[in-house]
Amino acid sequence: MAQDLNTARRAEHTVARCTTYLLFACLLLEAGTLASTFSHRAELRSAADDSALSGVAAAPDARRPAITRLKLTALVGTGILWLVWLRRAYRNLALVGSKRSRFTSRQAVGYWFIPFVNLVWGYQVMKDLWLRSESMNDRDAYDDLPAPALLSGWWGMSMAWGVLEPVVAATARNARTALELTNVTDVALVGSAVGIIATVLAIRVVRGIDQRQQCFSANPPDLPAPAAARHHRTTARRV
């Protein structure tokens, strides 16, 4: 049993580390997007009127498709590795403490593929994983316990990022003048800033869960005893 746990911890740690590497790549790309958008905004602000954009002002747009493709590739790769890590980490719960979890490992991964459902249950899966990893899965139920602020903050910023990205894309398609594109870039700057914060928090979430799982021990903590057993021990002490 101890050997199985050690092997599982090492496997989870390896995938967690690779996941953070890809998240750092996403972070760098988002920071590059922020810098490019800020530079483009400065050029747009230099336009003196609300007429159609000149070739100089429109030129930076040619770089966007390449950046967008790189970001999409990094996000897809990170998403795949995230789910691989999540499955390994969630399966590790069956090796410690109560050896129970709120979801099966298949459910923990499968919920992420269901539109709208993943907005609720994806968060519940991460909350259950965090709380059980933090306490070495020492009880049966965690549903009523509050989620840590880090996890809630990460989820909130991720949802905000997911909303801002399509809004920027939709408004940019109809923008033709310097003023219109300046307004679009203002929203894009906010979106990139939110994306950077969400990615930093995601790295902390992965590292936080990984650090807690590396503390898993083959000797489980004492689980709450049944009422009858507690009554028996109390009677014995009185005698």
How is the topology of this model organized?
Blueprint lengths: L1 H44 L9 H4 L5 H29 L12 H6 L6 H18 L14 H26 L3 H36 L13 H12 L1
Helix pairs in contact: 1-3, 1-7, 5-6, 5-7, 6-7
Overall description:
It is a single chain. By secondary structure, the protein is mostly helical. 73% of the residues lie in helices and 0% in strands. The protein is built from 8 helices and no strands. Helix 1 runs antiparallel to helix 3 (64-92) and helix 1 (2-45) packs antiparallel against helix 7.
How far apart, in Å, are the first and last alpha carbons?
A: 38 Å
Number of strands: 0
Number of helices: 8
Name the helix and strand elements from N-terminus to C-terminus, one letter apiece. HHHHHHHH
Radius of gyration: 24 Å
The residue fraction in helices comes out at over 70%
- Helical/strand content category: mainly alpha
Tell me about the largest β-sheet: none
Backbone shape: elongated
Q: Which spans of ≥5 residues are poorly predicted at pLDDT below 50?
A: 56-60, 222-239
Q: What is the beta-strand fraction?
A: under 5%
